[in-house]
Amino acid sequence: MSKVTDAKVLAVYMVAPNTYYMEFEAPDIARLAMPGQFVHVRCNDSLDPLLRRPISIHMVSRPKGVLALLFRVVGKGTEMLSQYKPGDRVNMMGPLGRGFTLPLPGSKVAVAAGGIGAAPLVFLVQELANMKCQVTVYLGARDKKSVLCDGQFVQMEAEVVIATDDGSMGFKGTVPQLMQRHMDWRKTAMTYVCGPKVMMQEIAPMLQEADVPGEVSLEERMGCGVGACLSCAVKISHHGQISTKRACADGPVFPSWQVVWD
Ligand SMILES: Cc1cc2nc3c(=O)[nH]c(=O)nc-3n(C[C@H](O)[C@H](O)[C@H](O)COP(=O)(O)OP(=O)(O)OC[C@H]3O[C@@H](n4cnc5c(N)ncnc54)[C@H](O)[C@@H]3O)c2cc1C
Ligand code: FES
Predict the structure, then answer these.
(1) How confident is the model over 63-121, as pLDDT tens digits?
(2) What is the pTM of this model?
(3) Which of 41, 43, 147, 217 could be bridged to 141 by S-S, CB 3.0 to 4.6 A?
């Protein structure tokens, strides 16, 4: 069950170029949220932009009733959102969507994050740490100053392996290349992926070949966010049958081997 609330802004920080961390008092949403779910945010009080914007839940503190978002400014909506100050109220609906499937406690899992795709994976790793899972995070970014959330992952006792496109930090190359070199596929019970489409599209067949189950979080453009308008349609293949699913309500998380990438 999702809630609509006027969440009070508690903090806003710029954490990397064009990238903001924002904390809200939103106890009803924080209490229900699961990793991989998102909130649909009204970015200002006027009718422009008319539509809400979907942003993943980055972290929650259920006892404090606090939730955090981590987002990149790419257009009008996210620009307006970044301008809010502590004490302001932001209308949001959530938690929405189907999140990640959690593994058995104590499992060894891999998490692959590219760019702002790290945002929902912090909440996931928070839950995995509570379940005493052994987590390796493959974290990719354009360059050293764009690497996100590495400190948070380390604090949660995950092993963090970094790749940057220009080699200014960690391995020089992409996250799929890093995983090919570093990952011990035989011992991995589950892999979770969020990042640019091209990255997820490369990792999905690698998982299938290694027979490791995986889930990807898709970032389709959304309208209503609650399954009514079909603007977020994605193609899913199941036992050879192709069907259309709604990323907002049936996802945004889907089994990696079911997604038809085109
Ligand atoms: C389930 C879900 C979770 C998301 N979580 C996060 C998050 O945690 N942090 C974050 O920074 N962003 C996240 N996004 C993407 C975010 O919703 C968009 O960046 C935002 O809606 C852009 O709004 P805007 O008004 O600023 O830009 P617009 O003016 O609407 O668009 C600016 C540019 O961004 C592109 N764009 C807009 N929406 C998307 C999208 N959904 N996917 C890819 N490109 C898009 C447009 O094509 C355009 O080029 C998520 C998207 C989805 C569907
Ligand atoms: S955004 Fe309307 S159905 Fe998904």
Answers:
(1) 999 999 999 999 999 999 999 999 999 999 999 999 999 999 999 999 999 999 999 99
(2) 0.95
(3) 147
Going by C-beta distance under 8 Å and a sequence separation of 6 or more, which residues neighbour residue 205? none
Question: Which of 38, 42, 44, 55 to mutate to test ligand 1, by most ligand atoms within 8 A of the CB atom?
Answer: 55
Give the Cα separation of 75 and 210 in Å (integer): 38
Q: Quick check: 112 and 135 in contact, CB under 8 A?
A: no
Cα(18)–Cα(29) distance, integer angstroms? 26
User: Is the Cβ–Cβ distance between 248 and 96 less than 8 Å?
Assistant: yes
Output the CA 249–ligand 2 centroid distance in Å.
7
Catalogue all structural domains in the chain, each as residue range(s) with its CATH number: 3-96 (2.40.30.10), 108-214 (3.40.50.80)
